[in-house]
Amino acid sequence: MANAKRKPLIAGNWKLHNNHFEAIALVQKMAFSLNGADFDAAEVVVLPPFTSLRSVQTLVDGDKLKIGYGAQDISQHEKGAYTGEVSGPMLAKLGCSYVLAGHSERREHHNEDDAVVNAKVKAAFANDITPLLCLGEGLEVRKAGDQVAHTVAQLDGALKGVTEEQARRLVIAYEPVWAIGTGEVATPDDAQEVCAALRVRLGELYSPEASRETRILYGGSVKSDNIAGIMAKSDVDGALVGGASLKADEFVKLVRFREQS
Ligand SMILES: O=C[C@H](O)COP(=O)(O)O
């Protein structure tokens, strides 16, 4: 963590896990363990499935928890005949602060290309929700050594038409696809290489402020025994965590990354 102005963000992407009863239990368990100092040191966010958002909202509001929450996807459409979609205004009404855009599982299983991701990023901003933009290369690209060019091109595609003011509120998550859910974590240097390149690109596309202020997370098999090395890198501002965010004790350890060795 080089830049004190960028508050670390630890976000748990629950993916397709936890019905609303389980969601309440998990957030309660986290809230029981986390204290004021934890929230001063890091921003803590959970991303439950749509069906659990209302329950999480009720719990967070009712108990005035400092845990933030958001959604895993957003429709590029505001309303209309789009069966199964959930819109930005709906998520905003549920108090969502964040929404994932461009997660590799959406790109792969739902054919989301850069144009769709770009539309979703804009839909989030239009509803005052911070997009958590996911970028990252697959194994073939990594083996060819093209990870920086690939990820920077994804960034360019996702940010078409996004303003400087919006870019400064954006959160980016660099998630090499080969490291997601595989236990194959990128080395801290791997993470730093791409996160640094993305930061440079933000400067080229927008301004030195955008480059300095935008938080860039790493995601891919982050656990309590590897987070410290990754967070020590100067351009990594947090973690987007999948599997390890499903257990309260482990997630709390991630929030306390400074205590891990
Ligand atoms: O959104 C989270 C990422 O896909 C990482 O998942 P993982 O921590 O289970 O590898």
Report what the structure shows:
Substrate binds at residues 13-15, 181, 221, 242-243. InterPro entries: Aldolase_TIM (IPR013785), TIM_sf (IPR035990), TrioseP_Isoase_bac/euk (IPR022896), Triosephosphate_isomerase (IPR000652), Triosephosphate_isomerase_AS (IPR020861). The structure is a single chain. The protein has 261 residues and is an alpha/beta fold. It is built from 13 helices and eight strands. The protein has helices at residues 20-33, 36-41, 50-62, 88-93, 104-109, 114-126, 139-143, 147-158, 164-167, 188-205, 208-213, 227-231, 248-255; strands at 9-13, 43-47, 68-71, 98-101, 130-135, 171-174, 215-219, 238-241. Strands 1-2-3-4-5-6-7-8 form an eight-stranded parallel beta barrel, surrounded by five helices. Helix 4 (88-93) links the parallel strand 3 and strand 4 (98-101). Helix 1 (20-33) packs parallel to helix 3 (50-62), helix 1 crosses helix 13 (248-255) and helix 8 crosses helix 10 (188-205). It is globular. The mean pLDDT is 96. The structure holds glyceraldehyde-3-phosphate. Glyceraldehyde-3-phosphate is lined by residues 13, 103, 175, 180-181, 219-222, 240-244. Residues 13, 103, 175, 180-181, 219-222, 240-244 line the site of glyceraldehyde-3-phosphate.
